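User: I'm curious whether this sequence folds into something compact or stays loose and floppy. Could you predict its structure so I can see for myself?
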Amino acid sequence: MTENETRSGIEGRVVWKKAALVAAPGIAALAALGVLMAQGAMAASFAVSGEHFKVGSGKLTGAGLSSYVDVDRSGDGKQHPVSLLSLQDVTLSDICQSTQVETPIGPMVFRLTAGGDAGAVTANSLVIDADDLTGDARFGSAQIGRDASTLDAVPDTQGKPGQFGLQVKGVDVSGVRSHAWSAMGGNFKLKGLKISVGPGGEECF
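Assistant: Here's the prediction. I'll summarize afterward.
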């Protein structure tokens, strides 16, 4: 191994350690977006971080959407009421996820982007546990107020009997904006993936 190769290897390890230290509170968000789920939609099966994050996309298209109220739990034991949004056969023109993280050296912005010029982002299933979601939507058909235990627009997405639910078959949403606690994707394919963390970074919106 040459001296330059040795130096490069050492520098690479040092930079990675620094990046890991700074990004540690946001790693849960990255893992949630990148994990491959063998099963269909489900509520967050892991403890969420104490910070919610922003998710945005120019356009989202899905074969179906099911939603009901659920609760996420963070590592400190706190409970966070969320709207579980489960989508099937999802295509996103692009995706941006960001969160501001407090670190010993000051606030940092963790940001993940994909899609756009690199090609669409796709997933067999996408589950977002969100505080809210906004955008301009078109529904093929919608059922609002359906018992959450009988939802069938998206496989394996049912709530408790008697619980309020809604579902849509065929959905397009432009200008997607959401504040979320967790996100999971099955067979998530992120073309042109880019991850950055640093001071003064811009959030998605």
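Summary: Helices lie at 3-23, 27-34. The radius of gyration is 18 Å.
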